[in-house]
Design a protein that fits this description.
The chain has 177 residues and is an alpha/beta fold. The chain is 28% helix and 29% strand. A hairpin with a 6-residue loop joins strand 5 (118-128) and strand 6 (135-141). The radius of gyration is 17 Å and the shape is globular.
């Protein structure tokens, strides 16, 4: 019976998320806030889990679509701002999970360490069983612990021929299986 607070800084994305939320099985458990992480102020509330799919491109060529560029480039949410926000909002034993490309993820783990966050887990995600990981889900916490590593391939090899592990993971919410 978790309560979810989701923040979305971009108005159009916020409106789309609101529509999606209203169609979910638990719209009364999701509070959507149109705010940047930097401006988000939940009062004294701390979170046991923070999940982010942040923009990760730094100083690179931007897309002509401003909304797409904002979602992908870190101009509006740098690694520093993300970690500062997480430290402000995460409970003492809370976990922060973030998905990033592999190269950026490795750099982010080092950056998080300099902020007093410790890597507790990594899930390496490959597009297919025969390809190298392209993304990683990183779990960070304030407490040091052993790092658990997992590997997940999305497809067996053919397009839309999903692995059983991927199906098990997303079957309750991924509509295109």
């Amino acid at each position: 019976d978790a309560e979810i607070v989701a923040i979305e800084p971009h108005r159009d994305s916020f409106l789309q998320a609101r529509g999606n939320t209203l169609q979910s099985p638990w719209p009364d458990r999701i509070k959507l806030v149109n705010s940047s992480l930097q401006d988000f102020n939940p009062g004294d509330m701390l979170f046991d889990l923070i999940v982010s799919n942040p923009p990760w491109f730094t100083d690179s060529l931007k897309c002509p679509d401003p909304a797409r560029s904002a979602a992908r480039h870190d101009d509006a949410l740098s690694g520093h701002d993300l970690l500062e926000g997480v430290l402000r909002l995460l409970s003492c034993d809370g976990i922060f999970q973030v998905i990033m490309p592999v190269t950026e993820g490795r750099i982010f783990i080092e950056k998080a360490l300099s902020y007093g966050m410790h890597c507790t887990g990594i899930t390496h995600i490959s597009p297919t069983q025969s390809s190298l990981p392209k993304r990683m889900i990183i779990s960070l916490g304030r407490q040091k612990s052993d790092v658990s590593e997992h590997f997940l391939a999305i497809e067996k090899g053919k397009r839309h021929e999903y692995t059983s592990e991927f199906i098990e993971l997303v079957k309750d919410f991924y509509l295109k299986l």
